[in-house]
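[Automated response] Your request has been received and processed.

Submitted sequence:
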Amino acid sequence: MQFLYPTFLIAALAIAIPVIIHLFYFRRFKKVYFTNVKFLKEVKEETSARQKLRNLLVLLMRCLAVLALVFAFAQPFIPQGTEVKQGDNAISIFVDNSFSMQSLSEDVPLVEKAKQRAREIVNAYREEDRFQILTNDFEGKHQRLVSKEEALALVDEIKTSPAVRNISQVLTRQKQVLGTSAAPNSISFIISDFQRNITDLGAYRDSTLQVNLVPLQAVQENNVSIDSAWFEAPVRTLNQPNKLFVKTRNWGNEDAENVRLSVTYDGETKPVGTLNIPAGSEVVDTVVINIDITGWHEAVLTLTDYPVQFDDSYYFTFHVAEFIDVLVINELAPDPRLDAAFKSAGYFRVTNQLSRNLDYSTFPSYQLIICNGVKSISSGLSFELAEYVKNGGNLLAFPPHDADLASWNAFLKNVPADEIQSFEAVNRQVTDINTEEFVFRDVFENRSANLRLPSTQGNFRIGTSARIGGERLLTYRDGSTFLSKYRSGNGIFYLCAAPLSDEYSNLAGSGEIFVPMLYKMAISSARSRPIAYTIGADQVIEADNHVRGGESVYKLRGQNEEFIPQQRIVASKVYLTLQNENLEAGYYDLFLQPDTILAKFAFNYNRKESDLRYYSIDELENQLPPNVNVIGGSALASLTDVIAERSTGILLWKWFVILALLALAAETLLLRFWKN
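Generated structure:
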């Protein structure tokens, strides 16, 4: 047994008081003479013996009461294997309020159970101690130490949030705040479900902070979520079926059957069907969206799942342009076959320009640029075309038979792409088509049918550098390349080995190849604008810049809020940065003037919380670094007492107070009922 305040033991000298009273407080007897002395002598001896016994017992009770009170003030305790720390305490309590804490623990959500544990922890300490209440939101009001009363009020305000932090981030933030305190003792508590994807305690090695883990676990771990969605084509086309791929995932240990999936857009909800998702796996389904109106569209995918529902909806937005703009750069006159191929679809708008009269500033406004028969590519045009591709554009090149190889190869090196070699006036037949690549994928209903593939009467040899990594789309019978594809930056470059003129190629006459090839190239891209963003994960949003001189401020407006994001304008783009914005899932409009919407963005909650796999108490204990403890199991029934025992051992002062009261009660009984 040890004492928290051993100096109080000096007060044990007060035991001398009842001893002195006992020694000096006695009754003097008056002599009375009687004839029968023998009888009185016997009565006197018996009475004196009884009185001495009673007085000794009273003395014993008084001494025991004094000693018990002295011990109570000295606060004795039995150590529990940890060093007892004296002085004031600075306590940081992290309450996990992420969406996974919506799961049920018996009859209440885990977040309510966590708030209850936080109150018990606060109540386990003294009024003089200081507290930090921390959540995943990392709010400003949680970045300071407060009194016991304020801490309890902050706990009551906690609600679930889309924010999610790794345990290492939480410990870093706790240490920063606790470091501002002058208290000699710093203590951390983390109340969480300890999901496997956020619990990274392995790298924690700080021995200056005492860390206590309070694990809470749900009754079940089953959950199905919509993981992500994306369009097959980066550009959505009007009055055409647009394929949308939807990835759903089963995070549980049991198969999920008959999960209903639906999509809502343009004010209509359309059922997609039911999904059967094996345990611990994911399924990609296809949704066809037909669009008959240009402009911005809002849509949401929804599935049925319970009880964790924050990840059952996936919001997304997309834009359908009235026209897809195509620029054709010609050496001389425009090629009527290109105009005819694009005019067959009403949503293509073709612009023809001569190579010597180009406005480079307009390049970013075109979805596809076709370089047709340009004999020599100047250094300026080479640079602008390479930049156009790297910034997300699509470029298709048909070199003429008399092309200046030096300027062309300098341009191809700048892209980069394989160089073209000398022109060969030899008849060749295209025999192989790559139907796995986007340009020709899903174009032909019957791949085994006899397609009329193009033939050429002359072509360039295209090099095959493994370092550059070109992809063949059309191949000659001898294995050489007719049409190849190269990814450069955010865009795509297509290179044809033969000129487009009828003198050397019949590609333009092969309608079943030429027309769909041009269409798919115009709507393809190495990178398209995301149809949705993840709250807390995607920090930068790119949009077209609509500021034309002067200063203007872009704003984002949601259903329940409006705010100004950090913004940076670079040429034709504006980059919006969202830092520590507690957004709700849904749609947000970008605008300069309130009545004019420039773009629409969709935000979804982070799916990191969808994985409901937790560490058990035993697993946590097996991976704990030094100075980290787990408070779990039966201890959670009385967390206040457990914390008190862990911080000061088994407290005995209450028992000594009870002992003092019992001693005083015994003294009272002796004096009242033991008569002389």
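Summary generated for your ticket: The first strand starts at residue 2 and ends at 3. Residues 37-74 form the longest helix (38 residues).
If you did not submit this request, please reply to this message.
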